[in-house]
Fold this sequence. Notes:
By secondary structure, the chain is mostly helical. It contains 12 helices and 2 strands; from the N terminus they run ααααααββαααααα.
Amino acid sequence: MTARWAGPRPRPARGAIRRGRVALAFLAVCVVWGTTFLAIKTGLAWLPPLTLGGAQCGIAGLLLLAWLAARGGLVLDARDIRRGIVAGALFFPFGNGMVFAGTDRVPSGLAALLVATIPLFTAIFGWTTGYLSRPGWGQGLGLALGLGGVAWLAGPFGPGGPLGPADPRVPCGLDPAGALLLLAGSACWGVGSIYTGPAAPPTRSSPLARAAVQVFGGGILMLAAGGATGEWGRIRWDQMTVATVGSLAYLIVFGSLVAFVSYTYLLSVADAGWASTYALVNPVVALFVGWWLAGEALSLRTVAAAAVIIAGVALLTLVEGPRAGGGPSGRRAE
């Protein structure tokens, strides 16, 4: 019996492949960054905030640069390098640096909840600069809900004046200074998302090469800032354990090499406002992981504020908001 040749197998449509890549990248960012808050909390027992973040990004960026160079994929011009360093500074020394410092002061689940405001800041900066469309009624309501939820969760003022972390009216011992650091870091991430997304000019370099420059440059800047502020002398070598070293390794591999590279890819093929909606899922993951693995308390106020913030961010970014599609601002989709 002679086998019949049926011709070449049909290949999946390029659109389907691209949608699959976007979905996988978005899932990686949502889930992985939700788990990194507990890893940050663990690593901070050994390394101070800027030093921990600098070690994470510096090592991850160096590995990524070496891998790209070995494969001949490290194609960058001077403008890409310059913009990569600026973006790395926004994302890491200013963004992650303040997030790491804030996470050292508050439970990891609450830290993730406050960092969920990144889409709020991304939308505000995008609207004011004209890189994102003006909000409709749904997005305006979402902004009000999101900001109201944050004020409810982290507001340092009550009927009796400023509250301290030991005051029973403050949820789970939330430190107001830590909350401000987390919000400031989120604002820097919002600026960085606009700068590397819709505000970025067309380029022939790959998202992976741009991510490598941002991660490595940001890591070096964080390490330098840590040394300048005296952090290197505050390293607790007695806390260099399997758990703390493992947390750093987790942050390098998953927090940087997997999640940040995925986020850079999303910014190259989707709207920055839509890409930042990963923050909807992060708090849910982080709150559960912190409760399950670290025994962090969940109060009724925390859960209620979380629901308000997430509902606000959902309205802001999903109702009348942009959807994933072609590269923003005419950038070449990879």
